[in-house]
Amino acid sequence: MKVVMKKVFMKLMVPVLLFCLIGPVRIPTENAYTYAFPFLPQYQPGSQEELIREVGWDRIFFDYQSVSIRPDQRYTVDKLVTWLHNHPNVYMWLEGHASENEGSRDECLPLGERRAESVKEYLVERGVSSSRLSTISYGRGRPAVVGDNENYWVQNRRVMFVVR
């Protein structure tokens, strides 16, 4: 049993120790886009997983009843612009969502659509082709978090970036 534990420990610790000694290793890829640990999985270029890793998040949040991109969310959208410029063959859905306290189901669908359209407009103004972007609204039909107070609702006022 000790021999097996020693082998498992060595397999796990050797990469960590190497990183501590030599630092990050440049991973040669088509895009040459990351510094990474050599033992971490590499994602397919242009995939949803790579989008999350490179942009840092797959969504932005909005204020109550607002369709304007918040100043604290612009950094994420700007990183998305860069990512889309680096992946010209990627098409994307922009999914608009609203929270339960922003109105009836009929009022939330147009609000989600306007949020998705405002993100699309922002991306197009920065050089992303509109033909690569599609919008859809789920209103309050697909909450990220279910709950009945502001702490939950604020997480549902969002636009999601989904690679298609």
Describe the structure.
The protein has helices at 2-22, 48-55, 74-86, 105-125, 150-153, and strands spanning 25-26, 35-36, 59-61, 92-97, 133-139, 158-163. With 164 residues, the protein is an alpha+beta fold. The chain has a four-stranded mixed beta sheet with strand order 3-6-4-5, with helices on one face. A two-stranded antiparallel sheet has the order 1-2. Helix 4 (105-125) links the parallel strand 4 and strand 5. It is extended, with a radius of gyration of 20 Å.
Secondary structure elements and pairings:
Elements: H1 2-22, E1 25-26, E2 35-36, H2 48-55, E3 59-61, H3 74-86, E4 92-97, H4 105-125, E5 133-139, H5 150-153, E6 158-163
Parallel strand pairs: 4-5
Antiparallel strand pairs: 1-2, 3-6, 4-6
Please summarize what this structure is.
Helix content is 41%, strand content 16%. It is of the alpha+beta class and 164 residues long.
Question: How is the largest sheet built, in terms of strand order?
Answer: 3-6-4-5
Topology as H/E string?
HEEHEHEHEHE
Multimeric status of the protein: single chain
What's the number of extended β-strand segments?
Answer: 6
Largest sheet: 4 strands, mixed
- Rg for CA atoms: 20 Å
Shape designation: extended
Q: Assign the structural class, choosing from mainly alpha, mainly beta, alpha/beta, alpha+beta, or little secondary structure.
A: alpha+beta
Instruction: Please report the distance between the alpha carbons of the first and last residues.
Output: 47 Å
Q: Which ranges are low-confidence, i.e. pLDDT below 50, for 5 or more consecutive residues? A: 26-34
> How many DSSP H or I helices?
5
Proportion of helical residues: 40-55%
Mean pLDDT level: 84
What proportion of the residues form beta strands (DSSP E)? 15-25%
